[in-house]
Amino acid sequence: MLMIEYKDIGWWYWLVTAWLLTFAVSGISIGFMLAIGLTIFQLIHFIIREQNYRAFPVQVRFWYLMLLIVALPQPLQWIFWIPTIGTWAQILFGYCTMARCVSLLAWNRKEKFTLALLRKTFFSRPVKGSIQQGFAAPVA
Fold first, then answer.
1. 16-28: per-residue pLDDT in tens?
2. Most Cβ neighbours (<10 Å): which of 35, 66, 97, 98?
3. What is the pTM of this model?
């Protein structure tokens, strides 16, 4: 089921990022730096919008940026395939693996970390909005 949210600015940021990463893994290496630059811009935008650097959307963008930076050195650039595929899954189907991983961080959940929580987190259907809606609620 497609979940294209063209009215959401975040969706547009992810769409452009997905294209930049696609160009990059296809051999246009400037795409890596442009994707990182856009992610930094997006992170700043969401810090300002949310007025809280600890807000869940900010955390997702921060850890996404960290993944891109880890993948930047030449021997590790194969890692760029992970956010490339994952970002396309996010913009087409609303499934964000990064958001699901971030929701499992200790400060973002009330539930005990269990195999059942992992199953629920990674195998539940995508939802509009935040993966935190309905489960793995943040600690206040």
1. 999 999 999 999 9
2. 35
3. 0.87
